[in-house]
Every structure is written in C-alpha cells, then in structure tokens.
Specification:
This protein has helices at about 5-15, 35-40, 70-80, 85-90, 110-120, 120-135, 155-160, 190-200; strands at about 50, 60-65, 105, 140-145, 165-170, 175-185, 205-215. It is of the alpha/beta class. The protein is globular and about 45 Å long. The relative contact order is 0.17.
Length: about 220
C-alpha cells in the first residue's frame, strides 16, 4: 500500500462522513463538504478567466482566500490528504462550465525530487476524480524535467524564466483537447508553459481548471 493509499484509509477510519472545513457530519449527498461550508466558500464569479489566448478555456472555481488557501497549503506542505477529495469535489462541480470535446486530463507534473520529498503530487490527487467524472484518461508521458524554484513570491517575468524549459513529452500525445488540472493559478506562467509544450507536440486545444485563482 502506498503512502497516499494508507493516509486515505486512516482518514476514513478516523473521520468518516465529516466536513473537512467544520468537522460536522456530512451526508453522502454532500460529500466531503457540508452544505453550509460549501455555500460559504469564496466562489469566483464568474469562474472563467483568461491569462493567455493559448487556452480554449480557463476556469478557477474559488478565490485563494481563507479557508481555501489554508486547505491547499495543508494539503501540499503538511500532507493533509483528506483535503484532496474535498477540493476535487469543487473541481467536479465545474462540469457545466467546461468546453465540449475534452478527451484527456493532465495534472500539472511535479519534478521527481519534489514529489519524493512531498510524497505525492497534489495535482494528481485533484485530477483523478475529474478524469473519472469526465470519463476520460489521464495523460501519461509528460514530465517536469527541471526542479524549478518555488514560484510563490516571484513576479511574472521570474516565473516565466524559471519555467522556460521545465516540461518535456516522452511519448506521442494522441489527444485533441487536454484539460490541465492544478490547485492554484497566479500569473498563469506554469500552465501557459505546459500548454505550449502540449501544443508544440501536436495537441490542438488546451483548457485549464484549478481550485483557486490568486489575483
């Protein structure tokens, strides 16, 4: 059993059927977030945004403010994996906002060194439920070949410079329209560079879906 699977199993034993934000009991219909907390989340209105014309559509569901920022940081840096299915639940609510024709989902790749230290890729945890919801496969063979510095605190120019040659494709891409999934978008440098890599390898359309937008 992997670390991720073990953590999920322990979470289900310790806090079954509880809201990740307030700890109260949640019903099967509510999922991992109770109705009250779900309504109180800082939803972006509208959810669609544009950082670059390279995207067919760009969607951020929530504002990167409390309690969303705290949940994402706890997931990424403190291994609180029980936030992953709750945040994925938010992403799956975007189904009607997504363009038609998406035939694959790509979690933003994490460099193997950072993945080893963290123990998991949070984008993958979020992307798997989205792929199941859309009934499409996850993209394989796209890698982060450079261990770029943490992007937080950097401006748009520095972020773009860090990511110029960050991604590579190691097998042919046979998909027409790929949906990139990640936790947070700020300047959009990461997803833009990843999209350019996909397009340069034959992908016709790229959209992006993230939990929160920091703007």
């Amino acid at each position: 059993m992997s670390l991720r699977q073990l953590v999920h199993a322990l979470r289900d034993l310790v806090i079954p059927g509880t809201c990740v934000f307030c700890g109260t009991a949640s019903t099967a219909d509510e999922g991992h977030i109770c109705t009250g907390c779900y309504a109180d989340l800082p939803w972006k209105r509208p959810a669609s945004f544009s950082h670059s014309g390279i995207f067919e559509r760009s969607i951020a569901m929530l504002q990167y403010t409390f309690p969303v920022d705290a949940a994402i940081k706890a997931l990424k840096f403190n291994r609180k994996l029980y936030y992953a299915p709750a945040l994925a639940q938010v992403l799956c609510s975007a189904r009607e906002l997504l363009p038609v024709g998406i035939d694959a989902v790509l979690p933003v790749p994490l460099h193997w060194r950072r993945k080893t230290l963290r123990g998991f890729n949070q984008a993958l945890e979020l992307a798997q439920p989205v792929a199941r919801m859309l009934n499409v496969p996850l993209v394989r063979g796209v890698y982060r070949k450079q261990a770029t510095p943490f992007q937080s605190g950097l401006g748009a120019v520095e972020r773009a410079r860090n990511l110029r040659h960050a991604f590579s494709v190691r097998r042919p891409l046979v998909h027409e329209h790929i949906l990139i999934v990640d936790d947070v978008i700020t300047t959009g440098a990461t997803t833009q560079q990843l999209a350019r890599t996909l397009v340069s390898n034959g992908v016709r359309k790229v959209s992006v879906l993230v939990v929160a937008g920091a703007d």
